[in-house]
Design brief:
Length: 263
């Protein structure tokens, strides 16, 4: 049986338990309060939200995505194993993130560079405005960004990932094109199974690579009181997966960072 592409994706690029813990620590560090209510935008299979509700019996998660397929996968594989009480604290909506949600939350997370789908500045502003309206006073939106020359050069980056104790598959991140005038960029993810079968273009992305100052300016324009940048630390030239508040970054070949807007 061919492994599901969402399962392969989660094994390749996600650490939802680590991310949920980091969001909790980030909010506590900046506000001196506990975040209880998370909204996960572009949530896909919403595994981070599931990990979030597991962390504390007071935690709730609101999961938004327009695509029913990953939501259905998440319901079957991540929501189903939860207890009835935990399930009651997860709300899944097939909904446009450009429309504010009625329930005000402490945190909004947009991971995996997902908001890059908004290629016009007017849409970026509309999204950030929607986030602001959906947050409690003092709440924050956490946006994951990537950039640097290593993010725009045509290339294929491969790595082996464990599928089981005895089998591995190959994950390929394919950077197809980049336009320096528009900052439009196209990417794809491929998988090669232990059998040798290639699953090509399982995920395809058509993004605009927004820069950190553009994002901060847009957040400020819609009324966020403060913006912060959390930059990935490095050891011997490689990212550590740890992020610290910085106002000047290293001129890395490629980088991942978080921009935070505080209401």
């Amino acid at each position: 049986m061919t492994p599901n592409k969402y399962h392969l994706y989660e094994l390749s690029v996600q650490s939802p338990d680590v991310h949920a813990a980091w969001l909790e620590e980030l909010y506590k560090g900046l506000t001196k309060k506990h975040a209880r209510h998370l909204r996960e935008d572009f949530c896909g299979t919403f595994k981070t939200s599931v990990e979030w509700v597991k962390r504390n019996p007071k935690n709730t998660a609101l999961c938004l995505d327009l695509d029913s397929e990953p939501l259905d996968y998440g319901r079957e594989n991540h929501l189903a194993p939860l207890s009835a009480e935990q399930k009651s604290r997860v709300k899944i909506l097939q909904k446009d993130v450009l429309i504010p949600t009625k329930t005000e939350v402490d945190l909004i997370s947009a991971g995996n560079f997902s908001f890059y789908i908004f290629k016009q500045r007017s849409l970026l502003l509309k999204y950030f405005s929607s986030c602001k309206k959906s947050l409690k006073t003092g709440g924050m939106v956490v946006l994951e960004l990537a950039g640097g020359p290593g993010m725009i050069a045509p290339m294929r980056e491969k790595k082996e990932v464990a599928l089981s104790k005895t089998q591995k598959f190959v994950y390929t991140w394919h950077q197809k094109s980049f336009d320096p005038i528009t900052h439009d960029a196209q990417y794809a993810i491929h998988f090669k199974l232990p059998s040798g079968r290639v699953m090509k273009d399982q995920f395809v992305y058509d993004w605009r690579l927004w820069t950190i100052p553009e994002v901060r300016d847009a957040l400020s324009e819609v009324g966020f009181k403060k913006t912060l940048v959390y930059w990935e630390t490095a050891h011997k030239g490689k990212g550590t997966g740890e992020y610290v508040h910085m106002e000047q970054g290293d001129n890395s070949f490629s980088w991942v960072a978080y921009v935070i807007g505080i209401k």
